[in-house]
Design a protein that fits this description.
This protein has about 1000 residues and is mainly β. It is built from nine helices and 56 strands. It folds into two domains: about 800 residues, Maltoporin, Chain A (Beta Barrel), CATH 2.40.170.20; about 100 residues, no CATH class.
C-alpha cells in the first residue's frame, strides 16, 4: 500500500512541477487576487488572507460537476478537504459520516452544519438495524454556491458549545438572471446506472454443496438422497453431476423440479444475481432574476432512485426559494426557504440478523439457484394459492426437513424484499428571514430568525409466514408484526447582531460583531408495535394485533441555549491581523452553577510577502497561529431521575426501573486547541501550498460510565476523560499548464491525525463503545488511539502460535487488543483539465490504515462459502495447523476437514485473524464534459448548454479487505467505525448530465 501510494504521488507531482516550469514563460493569464472573500462562522464574510486559522472552501462545481448524484452532499466531499474524513456506506438512502481532525469525544461526533449562518439538523437516525440516513441529504444540491469547512477550534469558536467537532458552512446561491435583467431559466437532467464491483462481493467455491459434513442427511423412499436442507452452510457433499438429489425445489408444487431429483451441481445463478442495477433520475429547474439591490431564485428538483435490492425505491422532491431585497438604501432583507418531501421503500436491514446480504456472505448453500428462488416466490405468493402450507409464499432453501417447509434460518430473499420491506416518509423544511439596517456607514444591525423542522414516519413489516424473529417493543419472537416510529425535530434560532468597522488611523482599522442568540430545540418520538403477530395477513396496522399492544414508547424534550458573543478583528497596514472572539453560553441541560460558560479564541496572521517584498516569485506568503476553546453540553434528562411508563397493572401505572444514575453536578465538556500554519503562492499562483499543525485537548467529557449493579444502577453519567489529537494538514495546488485554450489544475489534500485516549476515570482504563458479533468490541482504551478493537488473539510461545493439544486447534487468548479503527492518514488528488469547450476531471481518494473486523469472513470461511475453502483437495485430507504445543514441540495433531473441522473461520481461528487493514485507493470520481459553442446555439433561446458523462467509484485500485468495500460499514455514528458485516456490494456508477440555460 505504502509503496503504491508513494509511487503514485511521486509520478503525479514530479510531472506537474516539470510542466509548470516549462509553461511559466508562456503564461498569459493574469494571476487571480489572493484577497478573496470567504464565508466564516455566523455567516460573516472575511478576506481569506486575514484569517488566522485553517479553512478550506469547495465551490459547487467541484462538489457535483465531476460525479454522479449521490443524494447526499456529504459523500461528495470525500477526498476534497484536508483533515475531513468522509465515510460513506452502501445502505440505500443511508448515512455518510463526517469527521474533522479526528475523534475528540469518547462518543464520537459529527461537525455542525450551517446554511447561510444558521445551524441545521444533521441527525443520524437508526431504528432496529435500519439506517434512515442523516438529514444532510435533505439539502438541495442545486442551491449550494460553496462549502467552507471550518476545521479547528479557532474557526468554530463562535459556535461555542456546538463547535467542538468543527463546522461545515454552506452558502446558497443568489439569483442572477440574464445580463438584460430578464428571467433566467436553467434546466438540468441526469440519469445514472450502477454496476456491481465484483471485488466487493464474495467469490464462492463451486465444488461442495449444502451441509456441515460431506454426507447427505436423510434418504427419500426411492433411496435417493435429500439435500441437507436445514444446514445454512456449504461444507457438504462434493458436487457430482451424475448424482441425483432431492433439493429444496423438489418440494415446491409450482417448480418444474417438483418431486424430481436433480443433478448435484453448483447453482448457475448465485446470490449476485439477486441484485438489481440501481438507477437514478434527477431533474431540476431553476428560475432566477437579479439586479442591484434585489434578486430572486426558485428551484425545483426531483430525484427518483431504485436501489440494489429488489422493491427498493426512493422519491425525493425539493423546493427552494431565495429572495434578497433592499427595501431602502439602508434596509436590506433576505429570505430563504427549502422544503423536502421524501418517500423511501425497501431500505435494507443492516447488521447481522435478517440482513439478506449477511446470509449471502456468511450462511448460504452454493447449490441454491437464485432465479429458482425468485420463480418460487412469485408463483407461491399468488393469493389463489398462498396459505400456511407454503408459508404464504415464503418458499425457502433452508427447509426444516423434507416434510416441514418452514424456514430453519432464513426467509426466501425475495419474500424478505417484497413482503418484509420497510417504508418511510420524511418532511423537511428550513427557513430563515433576515433584515439588516445600516445605522451609519460603520455600523449596521442584523436581526434573523431561522426554523428547521423534520418529520419522519417509519414503518416496519413482518409478513405472515416469516421466520420467527425478535420484533417490536417487547422484542419477543413472532412470525408476523407491524411497527411504526414517528419522530419530530425542530430547531428555532433568534439572532441579533451589530456589525461595526472603524478606521483607527489610515492604516489601522478594527471590525467585528457584537451579538446574541437564543436557540430552542424540540424533539418528540413515538414508537408502537403489534404484539403476538397479525390477526389478518397483509393488513399492517397497530389495530391488527393478536395481543394487546404495549404502551407506546414516547420521548419528548425541549432544550434552550442562550448565547452572547463579541468579536474584534484588527488590521495593521494590511500586513498584520489579530482577531479575538468571546462567546458565553447558558444551557438548559446543565445544572445551575455549571450552566453558564464561555469560549475564547485569539488568532494572528502576518503577510510575509508584503514585508519581504517577494511578489516577483512568491506572490503571497502568510504565517498564522491561533488558540481557542470550544465545547459541548449535555443531552437532556441527565441531571435527575426520570421514569418511563411500562403500562397499566390492575388500574395502576407501572414504570421501568432507573438504570442510569443521574448527575446533578454535570458541567460542559471542553476542547482546547493550538494551531499554527502557513500559506504560500508561487509563480503567480501556479503553485499554492497551505500547511497546518494543530494540537487539541478535550477534557471533562460527558460519558455514561458502567458501574456495579450492586449500587442499584448499571451506569452513571459523569464528567471525565481526556482525548488528545495532534495532526498535520497539507493542501497543494498546481497549475502545470495554463494557456489561452488549455488549463490543467491539480489539487492535492493530505492529512495525518494522531489520537490518544489519555485518561478516562480513576480506576477505569477501558470504555466499551460498541459490540460486534464474534466477540469483538470497539473501545476507548487509555494509552491507545480511540477506536481500539478488542477480541481474541492467538496465544504465542516464543513467537509461535500455540495449539490446544486437546483439539488440535489454536489456543485463543481473549480480551486482547487486535486492532484500531483510526486511519494513519487520508488524502485525495484531483486533476482538472479544460480545452476550449471540453473538460476532463478525475479524483483519486485514499486512506491509509484504520482496521476493520469482518464478521463476514469470521463466519463465511467456516461455513465453507468462499473459494479459499475448496482449493484443490483441501477438504479431502487432514490438516495440521502450523504452530507449537504448549511444551514448545511442533504441532502434529491432524484435523479432518471432512466433517467441517475447518482450519479457517471462527471454529478454529481467533477473531484477530479477521481484522484487516482498511486502506484503500479509489478512482472516486471522473467526468468528461463538453460546453456547446455559442455559434452552435445562435438563433435559439439557449445561451448555455453542457453535456457530461460522469462516474463514481469506478475503480478500487487497492484494498486489503476481501470481498467487501472498506467504506461499506453498518451505518452512521459509532456504527461507522471498524465493522464490516453484511454490507451491500459497491456499485460503479455511470451517468449522463445535461444542462441548458435559457
Amino acid at each position: 500500500m505504502k509503496k503504491l501510494t508513494t509511487s503514485l504521488l511521486v509520478v503525479v507531482l514530479t510531472s506537474s512541477f516539470a510542466i509548470a516550469q516549462a509553461q511559466e514563460k508562456n503564461d498569459t493569464i493574469k494571476a487571480k487576487e489572493i484577497e478573496g472573500v470567504v464565508v466564516t462562522a455566523l455567516g460573516i464574510k472575511r478576506e481569506k488572507k486575514s484569517l488566522g486559522y485553517a479553512s478550506q472552501e469547495i465551490k459547487a462545481s467541484a462538489l457535483s460537476d465531476g460525479t454522479t448524484n449521490t443524494g447526499n452532499i456529504a459523500s461528495q466531499l470525500s477526498g476534497k478537504v484536508a483533515g475531513l474524513n468522509v465515510t460513506t456506506n452502501n445502505n440505500f438512502g443511508g448515512s455518510s459520516n463526517l469527521l474533522i481532525r479526528g475523534i475528540k469525544t469518547l462518543g464520537g461526533g459529527n461537525p455542525l452544519i450551517v446554511i447561510d449562518g444558521s445551524p441545521v439538523n444533521n441527525t443520524y437516525t437508526q431504528e432496529k438495524n435500519i439506517d434512515y440516513g442523516n438529514a444532510l441529504s435533505d439539502i438541495n444540491q442545486e442551491d449550494i454556491e460553496s462549502i467552507n469547512v471550518l476545521k479547528g477550534a479557532a474557526a468554530s469558536a463562535l459556535y461555542g458549545e456546538r463547535g467542538l467537532n468543527g463546522v461545515i458552512v454552506i452558502t446558497t446561491k443568489n439569483g442572477k438572471g440574464k445580463d438584460d435583467g430578464s428571467w433566467g431559466v436553467t434546466l438540468s437532467s441526469s440519469m445514472q446506472v450502477g454496476f456491481i464491483d465484483k471485488s466487493t462481493f464474495p467469490e464462492y467455491q463451486t465444488s461442495y454443496g449444502a451441509g456441515y459434513s460431506q454426507k447427505f442427511g436423510t434418504q427419500a423412499s426411492d433411496g435417493l438422497n435429500n439435500a441437507n436442507f436445514n444446514a445454512d452452510a456449504s461444507w457438504g457433499p462434493k458436487f457430482d453431476p451424475n448424482l441425483m438429489v432431492y433439493q429444496w425445489d423438489s418440494f415446491d408444487p409450482t417448480s418444474p423440479n417438483y418431486k424430481k431429483a436433480t443433478p448435484w451441481v453448483a447453482a448457475k445463478n448465485g446470490p449476485i444475481k439477486f441484485f438489481d442495477n440501481p438507477t437514478t433520475f434527477s431533474n431540476s429547474v431553476t428560475l432566477e432574476k437579479g439586479q442591484k439591490g434585489k434578486n430572486i431564485s426558485f428551484t425545483y428538483e426531483n430525484m427518483m432512485s431504485d436501489g440494489l435490492i429488489p422493491n427498493s425505491h426512493l422519491n425525493k422532491n425539493n423546493f427552494s426559494l431565495k429572495i434578497n431585497y433592499d427595501l431602502t438604501p439602508k434596509l436590506h432583507t433576505s429570505f430563504y426557504s427549502t422544503m423536502t418531501l421524501q418517500d423511501t421503500k425497501g431500505r435494507g436491514i443492516t447488521g447481522y440478523s435478517n440482513n439478506i446480504a449477511t446470509g449471502f456472505r456468511q450462511w448460504w448453500q452454493t447449490n441454491v439457484d437464485l432465479k429458482a428462488l425468485e420463480n418460487s416466490y412469485f408463483a407461491n405468493v399468488d393469493p389463489a394459492i398462498a396459505s400456511a402450507s407454503n408459508n404464504y409464499g415464503n418458499v425457502v432453501w433452508n427447509r426444516k426437513s423434507a416434510t416441514n417447509g418452514a424456514p430453519a434460518y432464513w426467509n426466501n430473499p425475495y419474500f424478505q424484499a417484497y413482503q418484509n420491506y420497510t417504508s418511510d416518509n420524511r418532511f423537511r423544511s428550513f427557513t430563515y428571514a433576515q433584515a439588516t439596517y445600516d445605522i451609519i456607514n460603520n455600523i449596521s444591525v442584523t436581526g434573523k430568525v431561522s426554523y428547521d423542522r423534520s418529520n419522519l414516519m417509519a414503518e416496519s413489516r413482518l409478513a405472515v409466514g416469516s421466520l420467527p424473529q425478535a420484533f417490536g417493543q417487547s422484542n419477543n419472537s413472532v412470525t408476523s408484526g407491524y411497527a411504526r416510529r414517528d419522530v419530530l425535530r425542530t430547531e428555532t434560532n433568534y439572532d441579533l447582531m451589530v456589525n461595526y468597522k472603524f478606521d483607527i488611523t489610515d492604516d489601522i482599522n478594527v471590525s467585528g460583531v457584537v451579538g446574541g442568540n437564543i436557540r430552542r430545540n424540540y424533539f418528540n418520538s413515538v414508537y408502537a408495535s403489534t404484539e403476538g403477530g397479525l390477526v389478518i395477513a397483509g393488513i399492517y396496522a397497530l389495530s391488527n394485533s393478536k395481543k394487546a399492544p404495549l404502551a407506546s414508547d414516547e420521548n419528548q424534550f425541549t432544550t434552550q441555549t442562550n448565547s452572547g458573543y463579541v468579536t474584534a478583528s484588527f488590521d495593521f497596514f494590511k500586513k498584520f491581523y489579530i482577531d479575538g472572539t468571546w462567546r458565553v453560553d447558558q444551557s438548559s441541560t446543565l445544572p445551575a452553577g455549571n450552566n453558564v460558560y464561555n469560549y475564547p479564541s485569539v488568532t494572528a496572521s502576518v503577510i510575509m510577502s508584503e514585508i519581504l517584498n517577494t511578489k516577483n516569485w512568491m506572490n503571497f506568503w502568510k504565517l498564522r497561529a491561533n488558540y481557542a476553546e470550544v465545547g459541548g453540553t449535555a443531552d437532556p434528562y441527565q441531571l435527575a431521575n426520570n421514569y418511563r411508563s411500562a403500562g397499566i397493572l390492575s388500574g395502576v401505572g407501572i414504570y421501568n426501573s432507573i438504570l442510569n444514575q443521574p448527575n446533578p453536578d454535570l458541567k460542559p465538556q471542553r476542547s482546547k486547541e493550538f494551531e499554527i500554519g502557513t500559506e504560500a503562492h508561487f509563480l503567480k499562483d501556479r503553485i499554492t501550498v497551505d500547511f497546518a499543525y494543530y494540537k487539541t485537548k478535550t477534557i471533562d467529557q460527558i460519558i455514561p460510565l458502567p458501574v456495579s449493579s450492586g449500587i442499584g444502577f448499571t451506569g452513571k453519567v459523569i464528567n471525565a476523560g481526556r482525548i488528545d489529537n495532534t495532526g498535520y494538514e497539507v493542501q497543494l495546488g498546481l497549475v502545470p499548464i495554463k494557456s489561452k485554450d488549455f488549463t490543467w489544475n491539480i489539487d492535492v489534500n493530505w492529512s495525518k491525525n494522531k489520537n490518544e485516549v489519555v485518561s478516562l476515570y480513576p480506576g477505569i482504563t477501558n470504555l466499551l463503545l460498541n459490540s460486534f458479533q464474534g466477540g469483538v468490541s470497539l473501545n476507548a482504551r487509555v494509552g491507545e488511539a480511540w477506536g481500539t478493537l478488542v477480541g481474541a488473539d492467538y496465544t504465542y510461545l516464543n513467537g509461535e502460535k500455540v495449539i490446544d493439544p486437546k483439539t488440535g486447534k489454536y489456543l485463543q487468548n481473549p480480551n486482547q487488543i487486535i486492532g484500531n479503527t483510526t486511519p494513519d492518514w487520508i488524502g485525495g488528488i484531483r486533476n482538472s483539465l479544460s480545452y476550449k469547450g471540453f473538460s476532463l476531471s478525475f479524483l483519486i481518494d485514499m486512506r491509509k490504515g484504520g482496521d476493520i473486523f469482518s464478521t463476514d469472513m469470521y463466519y463465511g470461511l467456516s461455513s465453507g462459502l468462499y473459494k479459499e475453502t475448496a482449493v484443490g483437495d483441501y477438504r479431502d485430507k487432514n490438516v495440521v495447523l502450523p504452530g507449537v504445543l504448549p511444551d514448545g514441540t511442533p504441532n502434529t495433531i491432524s484435523l479432518s476437514q471432512f466433517d467441517n473441522g475447518s482450519s479457517m473461520g471462527y471454529k478454529t481461528q481467533p477473531s484477530r485473524e479477521f481484522v484487516y487493514d482498511g486502506s484503500f485507493i479509489k478512482l472516486r470520481e471522473a467526468s468528461i464534459g463538453y460546453m456547446l459553442p455559442k455559434s452552435l446555439l445562435a438563433g435559439t433561446k439557449i445561451y448555455d448548454a453542457k453535456i457530461s458523462i460522469v462516474g463514481r467509484n469506478l475503480w478500487i485500485i487497492h484494498k486489503n479487505l476481501p470481498y467487501a468495500d472498506p467504506e461499506a460499514v453498518v451505518g452512521g455514528g459509532l456504527n461507522s467505525y471498524g465493522w464490516s458485516i453484511g454490507s451491500m456490494p459497491t456499485t460503479r456508477d455511470i451517468g449522463v448530465n445535461v444542462t441548458f440555460k435559457f
